[in-house]
Specification:
The protein is an alpha+beta fold and 273 residues long. The protein has helices spanning 6-11, 13-33, 57-74, 78-86, 99-109, 130-146, 177-198, 210-221, 234-247, 256-272, and strands at 38-48, 110-115, 120-127, 158-167.
């Protein structure tokens, strides 16, 4: 089992830093390249009326929550989509003619969330046009408030009201560049920590900088083992040199003046020997 401590992690801070920056940068670039979209939000509340002699707040809340679940699913249906297209608002019309593709486009176009135990629906519409996003949100609210009976069996006892919106910021809100960048950076850091933990022997060239590594190699090259030099007698030096060159297939050629000098030295030694 690997025993990796916080100190071990921090000792490889370069690897953590590189992975964090790279993944954060990738998330930023991808988010920036996505088409900008506006978001328009509305909130609807589902109310179920009860007789005055049978008022039960708990039962009413549970019933409203049940109905809100039905509406949340109904909004994604083809019949609701057609109702939005027929509503008297300037909604988006450029959807695919293929039913399956159109269904997927509609699901990406809107987002429905339920607030638990309240019967409240939060509906968001996304579009590259601010006006289209807001007009579509108005159309959804219009259908739910005027034609909600088509999606439940409660009759007049069930009422749907618009309680907030549509709220449409002046600037695009999608993609979420800053949050995506932060998530990408954190993801890169986590990946680096996982690699360090499961592959502790792999250094990833982060324990030493290239300069440190080069300096270490130079230092190792500068260490030599001591060498003992033995000088041969003068009369053997010429023979040793000749033998060496003969082994390597070379020849020895002396300068004529140097050769003449050697002869005189030899004659002098012979005469005085």
């Amino acid at each position: 089992m690997n025993h990796i401590t916080i100190t071990d992690m921090m000792s490889r801070w370069r690897m953590l830093l590189v992975f964090t920056i790279v993944f954060g940068l990738i998330a930023f670039i991808v988010s920036a390249l996505l088409p900008a979209k506006y978001q328009s939000d509305i909130q609807m509340i589902v109310i179920q009326k009860q007789a005055d002699d049978k008022v039960d707040a708990f039962s009413a809340t549970k019933s409203a929550e049940f109905l809100s679940n039905i509406f949340a699913q109904a909004i994604y249906t083809t019949s609701f989509f057609n109702s939005v297209q027929d509503a008297p608002f300037d909604v988006r019309r450029t959807f695919s003619h293929d039913p399956e593709k159109r269904q997927k486009e509609w699901e990406k176009f809107i987002n429905v969330k339920k607030v638990n135990n309240t019967g409240i629906l939060k509906i968001s519409v996304y579009d590259e046009s601010r006006k289209t996003a807001e007009e579509t949100a108005k159309a959804i609210a219009y259908i739910l408030t005027t034609n909600s009976e088509s999606y439940h069996g409660g009759g007049a006892r069930v009422e749907v009201r618009l309680i907030d919106g549509p709220n449409t910021p002046l600037r695009p809100t999608v993609p979420y560049i800053i949050p995506n960048t932060i998530v990408g950076a954190l993801g890169g850091m986590i990946i680096a920590m996982i690699l360090i933990y499961f592959f502790p022997a792999v250094q990833f060239s982060t324990s030493h900088t290239p300069i440190d590594q080069y300096a270490q190699e130079v230092e190792e090259m500068m260490v030599y083992e001591p060498t003992t030099v033995v000088f041969a007698p003068e009369e053997m030096q010429e023979d040793i040199v000749s033998e060496h060159f003969n082994k390597v297939g070379g020849t020895i050629e002396f300068d004529p003046e140097v050769e003449e000098l050697h002869k005189r030295i030899s004659e002098f030694r012979t005469t005085n020997g």
